[in-house]
Amino acid sequence: MTRERLYLFDTTLRDGAQTSGIDFSVTEKIAIAELLDRLGVDYVEGGYPGANPTDTEFFREKRTKRATFTAFGMTKRAGRSVANDPGVQMLLDAAADAICFVAKAWDYHVRVALGCSNEENLDAIRDSVEAAVAAGREAMVDCEHFFDGYKANPDYALACARTAHEAGARWVVLCDTNGGTLPGEVEAIVRAVTAVVPGANLGIHAHDDTGQAVANSLAAVNAGARQIQGTLNGIGERCGNANLITLIPTLMLKTPYRDRLELGIDAARLTEITAISHAFDEMLNRAPNRHAPYVGESAFATKAGIHASAILKEPQTYEHVPPEVVGNKRKVLVSDQAGKSNLLGELARLGVEVDKADPRLDRLLAEVKEREAAGYAYEAADASFELLARKALGKVPRFFDVKSFRVMVERRHNALGQLVSVSEAVVKVDVDGETRMNVSEGNGPVNALDGALRKDLGKYQSAIEGLELVDYKVRILDGGTGAVTRVLIESHDKTTHRRWFTIGVSSNIVDASFQALVDSITYALLKADVA
Amino acid sequence: MTRERLYLFDTTLRDGAQTSGIDFSVTEKIAIAELLDRLGVDYVEGGYPGANPTDTEFFREKRTKRATFTAFGMTKRAGRSVANDPGVQMLLDAAADAICFVAKAWDYHVRVALGCSNEENLDAIRDSVEAAVAAGREAMVDCEHFFDGYKANPDYALACARTAHEAGARWVVLCDTNGGTLPGEVEAIVRAVTAVVPGANLGIHAHDDTGQAVANSLAAVNAGARQIQGTLNGIGERCGNANLITLIPTLMLKTPYRDRLELGIDAARLTEITAISHAFDEMLNRAPNRHAPYVGESAFATKAGIHASAILKEPQTYEHVPPEVVGNKRKVLVSDQAGKSNLLGELARLGVEVDKADPRLDRLLAEVKEREAAGYAYEAADASFELLARKALGKVPRFFDVKSFRVMVERRHNALGQLVSVSEAVVKVDVDGETRMNVSEGNGPVNALDGALRKDLGKYQSAIEGLELVDYKVRILDGGTGAVTRVLIESHDKTTHRRWFTIGVSSNIVDASFQALVDSITYALLKADVA
Question: Which of A153, A177, B64, B505 counts the highest number of beta carbons within 10 A?
C-alpha cells in the first residue's frame, strides 16, 4: 500500500506566541526556527509581518533551511483592492515561501467583527489568495471559527472553504478557534467538507479547551485531512494548541497511521524528539513536563515493584512503544516497593556500572528503603539518588567537608526607622586540607547559606560557576509535632544546560536545605569530573 | 428523552498515588476523600488495604460520606481458596462499601506474570467476585491490559469480562493499562464487548500516554460504557490517568453528552470544580496548570485584540462554555464591578458585614489585587483574607506588636563530637503597653520563631493555649533571581476544633513565615473575642 503524505504545519512562532507569559524576541524566533528544522516539520509559520516590529524584522529574510517559511496575516479588507491594502502588501513583501491568510468562516463574525457582507468576505478570500499565487507564493487559508460557523450556517462555511480552494489555495485549514468542538463532530464535519475540497487540500487547527486537541487533529486525519497545525509542547492561547510533540510519534508509530501515512520525518529524526522538546522548554526557561506523552521524564516510568522484574524481562508488554525510538529512557522508580531489579534498572539508566551479585547492592537497597521510610523521595531527586548509590559503591570523592555553619535572620528597625530583615550565613569548610571560612548575606537563610557554601571552594570554584538554584520546594511530612521537613532543590548549570534534583530531609528546614545544597554542589563537581 | 446515568469512579488515592513524586499520608488521603465527596464522584477508590501500612490504616474506617468507598486488590491466587488467601481476606476485612479486583485479561500476562492457566485465572475472578458479593460488598473487576489482551486474544479477554459479569460484578472495567490504545480502537473494542456484557455494566480506565485519556474515555462512553475511572487533575503513573476535572464539564455541558447522560453532580456543584482542582494542587504543593481545560487561569483568557467590542457584546461566540458555570473567570473581561461583586460575595461568606456603597471596599479591592500580583493567594488562605478585609474596614484590634526578632541556626560538633543543629529565636513584643522578650529553641528556625512568638502574650496567653501549627507549605514563585517565597500555614485549635489557613509572602522565607504566624495568632485572638 502506498502511504499518503501528511504535512505538519508548526505555528509555535505565531499562535504559540499568543500564550500568556510567552514573548519571543527575534533571536529566540531564529533559534526556535532552527529547532523546528531539526524536528522536520513541513511548514514553519513565523508570525504576522506588519503586525509588530519583531515579526516584521523576523521576515526580512528566510529563516528556515528545510521547512516552507510561512507568513500569517489577514485577507484584504472589504472595500479596497489588494493593491491598496497595506496589510496584504506587507505579506507579499515578506521573505516568505508561503502566505497563510486568516479568514472568517462564521457568518456571525463576518457581520459583527468585520462589518461587511458575506459576499465581500468571499471576495476578500478569493482576491487575497489569487494575489499571493500571482506573486509566486504558496497560499493557504485558515478558516477561523470553521466548526462553530459550520454548525450555525453550513452553506456559508463551505462557501468560504470552496472559494479559497478554487482561488488556488494549496491548503484550506479548518480552525476550531474556540477549541470546544469534540472529536466526533470534527470527524463528521471534516468528512462533509471533503465533498467540496479534497482531503489532500484540507488542514486542521485544533485547540485544547476540552483536553482533546490531539484527538481532534487525529479525527480530522481520519476524515481525510492531510495537514495538521500545532505547536511545540502544545503551547498556545488559553489551553494551548495541538501538541506536535505528542502527535508526531503517534502518527509514526501507531496503527493505523504508520501504515497509511508518511511524514517528512524519518526514524532517525524521531529519536531526537525528546531532546527537541526539552530544548524548547530550556528556551522558555521552564522545567519540562515530567508527565508529557512520549517525551516526559516519567512517560516510561513505572513505580510498581511487582511489575519491575517483568518489565525488565519483556518491556514491550508494559510499554505502548519502546522509549528509545523517541529518544526517551525506561525508568523504573526506586520507591518503598522497590526490589533489586528496580534498583539495577535505575543504576543502568544512570550509567552506574555494577555487578548483579555485588553484595554492596543489598546494603544500598536497605539504605534506600530506610531513607525513604524517613521521608526521602529519591524518585523526585535523581542526583541525590545517584550520589547515594555511588557512595555505597565507593565511587564519590570527598570534594569538600563542611565542618560547621551558622545562619542568622534578624528583623529590626534600621536607622531610618524602617523594619528590615537581614540574613547572614557563615560556613566553615575544608577543601583539599585547607580550612576556609566564608560568609554571605542573602534573601533569607537558605539563600545566604547557598551563597556562603558556594563562595569559595578553592580549586573547585571554576567548576560551579554556572550553577544556579532554579527551584526550591518544601514539604512537611506527617504534620504535627513529629513532623519532618523535606526539601527538594532543582539546580541548573548555565554552561552545560544540565538540570538536576537533590533532596534533604530533617526536622530542621535549614538542615534539610543544607543537605540538598551540598548534594547539588557535589553532583555538579562529580559531573564536571574535577576530582 | 430520559438520560442514562453515567458513574464517575475516582482513583486519585490508588492509581493516582502511583504518580512519581506523589506520596500520600493517611491524613492527606482523608482530606482528599473529603474533596472528592465535595466534587460529587460516585466512587472513591481509597487504595489497596494490605499492600502497605498507609492503605491498611486508611481502610480501618469508612472515609467517605457520599461516595461508595472502594478497596482495590488482587483476585485470589491460583491454587488456593478465597478463604485461604490472605490478600482477599484483607479486602473483605476492610471498611469498604465496594471491592475492585484487578485481574489479568491478556493471556500472555496470565502465563508470564501470574504463572497459572487461563482457566485458573477465570476461576480466580469468579471466586473473588462471588466472595465479595457474599460478604455484602458491591464487586467490580478491573480487567488489566484489556485492550492489548483483546487484540492478542479476543476470546480470552471477553471470557474474563463475561466471567466477572456472570459472577455478579456490578462493573467490568476495561483498562488500557499501557495507555497506548487510540480512540477509534477503544470505541470499536468496547462496542464488541457490549455483546457480552451490557454497556450499563462497563467501565473505562484510560491513561494519557498518547495525550488521549479524555478522548478514550469519551470513545468508550460513545460505545456504551457507563462508568469512567479517572483522577483529580489527571495525576497518575507515567503520563497520568483520565482527568476527571476535564471530563466532568465536558460530560455536563457539551452535546451530545449533556442531553443523553446524567451524572451525580448538579450545576451548583459544577461551579466548585475550579476551586476543587486548585485546592488539590495546593495539597500537592504545586502550582495549578494555568492552561488546564476549564479550570486553568488562562482557560478563558480570550485575546480581545481588534474584536474587543464583539467579545464584550457576545462573549459566548468566543467561548466554548461560559466560565462561570465551572467557577472560573473570563480573564481579560473582569470588570471592577465584577471584581467588587466577587469581593462582596466573599465577605458575606465570611460573615463580614459591609455596605455595598462603602468606599473602603474599593480600597480593599485594590489592595487585594496588588497583593495577589505580588504573590499572595487569598483563595488558599481564608483567615489572612478575613484579617486583611477586617483591617481595611477598620475592625481588627492591635492585640500585640512585634518590635523585632532574631533567629539563629547553628550546626556544629557538640562536646561528644556529634554534629548537632540548634535553632533559637528571640522575639521582642509589645502587649498592652508592656514590652516582653521571649526566647525559644525549636526544630528549625520557623518552629523556634513560632515558639517564641507564642510563649508569653500576657493577658491573651490563655486564648491561644489550644493553638497548634498543623501544616506548613512553602513555594517559590517565579523561580530565578526575582523569586519570592510564599508560605501557607494551617493552624488548628485543639479547644474549638477550628482550622484556618494564613499566608505570608516575602523574598525571605523567615519573613514570609513570620507574616503567616502573626496572622494565625491574630486570627485565633479575633475568634476568641478577647479584645
Answer: A177
Contact indicator for B231, B12 with CB cutoff of 8 Å: yes
How sure is the predictor about A308, in pLDDT bands with cuts at 50, 70 and 90?
A: low
B169 contacts B201 by C-beta, under 8 angstroms: yes
Residue B225, judged by CB atoms within 10 A of its CB (0-12, 13-18, 19+), counts as buried
Distance separating alpha carbons of residues A118 and A115, to the nearest angstrom: 9
Give the CA diameter of chain B.
Answer: 84
- What is the enclosing helix (H) or strand (E) of A151? helix A146-152
Whole-angstrom distance, CA of residue B373 vs CA of residue A296: 31
Q: In sequence order, which residues have a C-beta less than 8 Å from that of residue A356 and are 6 or more positions away?
A: A344
Closest in B25, B256, B301 to A20, CB measured? B301
- Residues shown for chain B: 531
Task: Evaluate whether A283 touches A31 at the Cβ level (below 8 Å).
Answer: yes
Position A171: which residue type?
W
A418 interfacial to chain B (CB closer than 8 Å): no
Which domains does chain A show, CATH number per domain?
5-265 (3.20.20.70), 301-392 (no CATH), 401-528 (3.30.160.270)
List pLDDT tens digits, range B375-407.
787 877 889 999 999 999 887 889 999 999 999
CA-based nearest residue to B103, from B139, B48, B144? B144
Q: What CA–CA distance (Å, rounded) separates A247 from A326?
A: 12
Helices and strands, number each (H, E), in chain A: 19, 18
Beta bridge partners of B406: A410, B426
- Min Cα separation B113/chain A (Å): 7
Q: Could you list the beta-strand ranges (E) of B177-271.
A: 202-205, 227-230, 261-262
Strand pairing report for A484-493 and A499-506: antiparallel
Residue A352, CA distances (Å) to A309, A330, A499, B400, B467 in order:
19, 15, 18, 58, 49
For residue A446, give the chain B residue with the closest CA: B509
Q: Considering only the beta carbons, identify the residue of A20, A109, A444 that sits closest to B509.
A: A444
CA–CA dist A427, A433 (Å, integer)? 16
Residues from chain A contacting residue B56 (CB–CB below 8 Å):
none
Q: What is the pLDDT of residue B531?
A: 66
Residue in the block written with cell 491466587: B77
Question: Cα(B71)–Cα(A477) distance, rounded to whole angstroms?
Answer: 25
**3 state SS for B84-150:** HCHHHHHHHHCCCCEEEEEEECCHHHHHHHHCCCHHHHHHHHHHHHHHHHHCCCEEEEEEECHHHHH
Residue whose cell numbers read 484489556:
B146
Extended strands (E) in A83-157: 98-104, 138-144
Cβ of A494 under 8 Å from any chain B Cβ?
A: no
Residue found by looking up cell 537533590 in the block: A502
Average pLDDT over residues B201-212: 98
Residue B342 pLDDT greater than 80, yes or no: no
Is some CB atom of chain A closer than 8 A to the CB atom of B473? yes
pTM: 0.77
Q: Is A362 exposed, middle or buried (0-12, 13-18, 19+ CB in 10 A)?
A: exposed
ipTM value, please give it.
0.77
Residues A180, B300: contact at Cβ < 8 Å? no
Burial of A388 (0-12, 13-18, 19+ CB in 10 A): buried
A175 φ/ψ angles, rounded to the nearest 5 degrees: -105, 130
Alpha-carbon span B64 to B77, nearest angstrom: 30
Report A:378-407 residues touching B (Cβ under 8 A): 379-380, 403-407
Q: What chain A residue is nearest to B512 in terms of C-alpha separation?
A: A444
